[in-house]
Amino acid sequence: MSLQILPGQTVNLGGKVSFGVTARKPGYLILVDIDAEGRMSQIFPTPELLAQSDGRDINLVKPGVEFVVPSPAARQRGFEYVVAPPAGSAVMIAILSERRVQLLDLPDLPRKLKDQAEALSYLSAWTSELRVPDNATGKLVPNNWSFDVKSYSIK
Known about the structure:
Layout: E1 2-6, E2 10-11, E3 16-22, E4 27-34, E5 40-44, H1 47-52, E6 60-61, E7 67-69, H2 72-76, E8 81-82, E9 88-97, H3 116-128, E10 132-133, E11 140-141, E12 145-154
Parallel strand pairs: 2-12
Antiparallel strand pairs: 1-3, 3-7, 3-8, 4-5, 4-6, 4-9, 9-12, 10-11
């Protein structure tokens, strides 16, 4: 899986950004931001966007097709990402789930993660413990996750 921050990895406070994700296999995308103060938040999909959407597959990524967040349809409804404080170094994490997952109960970070490698290691360990409902049985089962991590700077 590959994550791109558009227009680039240096963004200005108040500027608008979007994200492009491509994957080799289908899956459900979740975007998690770790801001310059180390706070982690899920920015896509949001509960508000899920409530407005008409489909269960709002975050389904198809293999080989760039998935853009926000989508053109979401943008028409006024959904956009505006860069907010704090300024400094931040990290964007794309998480691709093999099974349908739309919201994660994110853990509180024990400390500020230093870099991309540490963020990836932390989230990889955390998601390995998550269980998601099986569509056929409803039982909680392990899941396969893929990640891409990009550092970016807010000025």
